[in-house]
């Protein structure tokens, strides 16, 4: 393969990696609504940990047997805590940015149904993958430039 062809392939590949990494970084910081739909059997606990922006919203509806329900904000402060309920609805508006913890424990003798939706965004671990794409793009772009001028 001649140098000109190698140059274009490497430069275009590098640019593609950089664009995908950059767009992914922007997209992963935009909260998305995620549907909650699960059934919790007797003596089990369900934990939901959405990563929310300030002002993000969530709605949770729990119905069925007796249960305990608690929401903690990113600072581990209790937002709401209820015990021995058989039906509960809560509309959450995030006052702090970060990971919230919603815990439902089935304390009754039949299953509990959890429904609703919550806004969440990508975990911080995703940032590492996006940075790898950007760095790979820069390296491939640099190799392409080297191929052109070598």
Architecture overview:
The chain is of the alpha+beta class and 150 residues long. It folds into two domains: 1-29 and 122-150; 31-121, GOLD domain (Jelly Rolls). 34% of the residues lie in helices and 43% in strands. The chain is built from two helices and eight strands, in the order αββββββββα. Strands 1, 2, 4, 5, 7 and 8 form a six-stranded antiparallel beta sheet that branches. The protein has a two-stranded antiparallel sheet with strand order 3-6. Helix 1 packs antiparallel against helix 2. The longest helix has 26 residues, at 3-28. It starts with a helix and ends with a helix. The model has no long low-confidence stretch (mean pLDDT 91).
Summary, kept brief:
The chain is 34% helix and 43% strand.
Q: Based on the structure, what is the oligomeric state of the protein chains?
A: single chain
Top CATH class of the largest domain: Mainly Beta
- CATH superfamily of the largest domain, by name, is GOLD domain
CATH architecture of the largest domain: Sandwich
Low-confidence stretches: none
How much strand? 35-45%
- Kindly report the average pLDDT value: 91
The total tally of domains equals 2
Instruction: Give the strand tally.
Output: 8
CATH topology of the largest domain: Jelly Rolls
Calculate the terminal CA-CA distance, rounded to whole Å: 15 Å
Helix content: 25-40%
Query: What is the general shape?
Result: elongated
